[in-house]
Amino acid sequence: MTALPTLPTRPVVSEAPAGYAWWRFGRYSILVHRRAWSSGFLLIAAMIIVSGISLASGAAGLSPWTALAAAIGQGEPMHVFLVQELRLQRLIAGLLTGAALGVAGCLLQTLARNRLATPGIIGIDDGATAFAVASIVAIPTTLAPSALALTGAATAAGLAFGLSGGAGARGYRFIVVGIAVGALFGALTNLMLARTDMDSANQAYPWTVGSLNARPAQAVWLLGIGLLAGLPVAKYLGRALTLMRFSDSVATGLGVPLKRMRVMTLLLTVFLTALAVAVVGPVGLIALAAPEVARYLVGHQGVPVFNAALAGATLMSLADWVGRTLMAPIEIPVGVIMAVIGGPYLLWILLRPSARRAP
């Protein structure tokens, strides 16, 4: 009677790989990247500091501690009114829009395998802006401009994606077609503004440059709900996008449903971008800079969705604070501040050798 061969057993791993840590909770454990978590806490700290400074700065200056206390309803009634009714709503709008644009930029850059593929550069911002402006100056409707921004963003994304043949290996073609689509919608926006009266043009002006001044509360709440629902989906897509950075044949061999993942990624990008543009207008350079900051801090080849959201929120609130205080009492729209900062940054991205590598 012969003995049955023994089956090989799985090796017991007692230590986490280099650069990772195991968090054990009884029978369950989580493997986390040390640098990703530490950079996340660093971005949270930076966001809190910038938020406190933003709440304290203005025509009536407050100390950061007084401003934070007023934000939760503590302190003098005048300080509470100033912070909660004027500054806090603006800060929340900036944090939410920055986070949404950061996530959208991170997803789209990874999908197109190019760091220049952002919602602003491929025309999604311009499409949303054109439809929002049209609802004010060209074809007045009962729908709010923020509602039509979603339609414009979807139209621009569909045109760019369809005319380029997809966003897979054709990353540069996708960008070039997107630039053309954005230029078309930008020209339509300028044409509508040139042929309308002064009052309507002034009403539509914030939608063309990007501003956080007196944003509609309904659009801000809708963005918050959409971001809360979209972040887990973005994290789920990030795992597949990490494998899709390889060639299509390799990703397919690893079990990634390419077509479904691309469609889901594009839909989520359009969704988040449209909700953000419906609040702040076109501030597309946040989507360019925030993912790059997140990748630099994380230092590994994953898709840093949450860190991109934190970086985008911090950059947006910082740019808004600079715009409010740099030439006070004159306010500079946040879109103008980001254009001044983002222009040289974009040139740096284009000129450095790593700009030709996939994100």
TrEMBL record:
It comes from Pseudomonas duriflava. The chain crosses the membrane at residues 41-68, 88-108, 120-141, 147-167, 174-193, 219-237, 266-290, 334-351. It is found in: Cell membrane. Pfam families: FecCD. Keywords: Cell membrane, Membrane, Transmembrane, Transmembrane helix, Transport. This is Iron complex transport system permease protein. It comes from the Bacteria. Belongs to the binding-protein-dependent transport system permease family. FecCD subfamily. Gene3D superfamilies: ABC transporter involved in vitamin B12 uptake, BtuC.
